[in-house]
Amino acid sequence: MSSSKLRNVLFIGLLVVFAACSPAEQQGESNEVVAQLNTLEGSNWQLLKLTVLGGYEFIPEDHSKYVLNFRSGNRLTGTSDCNSINGSWLQEEAALRFDPFAATTSLCPPGSLHNNLILYLKDVSSHSFRDGHMVLTTPTAGIEIEFESRD
Q1: Minimal CA–CA distance to 150: which of 65, 80, 33, 72?
Q2: Cα separation, 124 vs 145, whole angstroms
Q3: DSSP string spanning 57-119?
Q4: DSSP bridge partners of 96
Q5: Arch. (CATH architecture) of 41-149
Q6: pLDDT of residue 34
Q7: Which tens digit of pLDDT belongs to each residue from 11-49?
Q8: How do residues 113-127 score in pLDDT, each as one tens digit?
Q9: Stretch (H or E) spanning 149
């Protein structure tokens, strides 16, 4: 094969690759992410794992004791072991915060994740979706609160 034919084949191959990465396809992927981000209202989540500084992971014995419910009108309800959560949630694309945010202060049994969960939920600044799970993060690197859907 002559060098000019080889160059043409390589050039056509590059065009195919660039066409596969066209803005239209990227726009479709972007819309899927935005669609996922817009699904919080009416969704219900239970705690799967809490990762704190140093990479330490806390996994609840009973996931159903740690729940967030994103109600209409941006109302937040839920439970944190033996306590109730309430407040408002504000979302703008990936940004998410809870303001106001309140939780009752009953003393839960030993081994409860209530204190840690509430401490970090107050500071949530963004969310994303990974493998069907909602992951909340704070401005502090390394903090992740991972929830699975209850729906």
Answers
A1: 65
A2: 9
A3: EE--SSGGGEEEEE-GGGEEEEEETTEEEEEEEEEETTEEEEEEEEE----PPTT--HHHHHH
A4: 91
A5: Beta Barrel (2.40)
A6: 43
A7: 454 444 444 444 444 444 444 444 344 569 999 999 999
A8: 999 999 999 999 999
A9: strand 144-149
What are residue 50's DSSP bridge partners? 58, 145
What is the distance between the alpha carbons of residues 143 and 116, in angstroms, rounded to a whole number? 11
pLDDT of residue 151: 81
- Write the pLDDT tens digit of every residue in 74-99: 999 999 999 999 999 999 999 999 99
pLDDT of residue 18: 44
Element of type H or E holding 140: none
Mean pLDDT of 124-146: 96
What is the domain partition of the chain in residue ranges? 3-35, 41-149
Q: Which residues of 12-26 are buried (b: 16+ CB within 10 A; e: fewer)?
A: eeeeeeeeeeeeeee
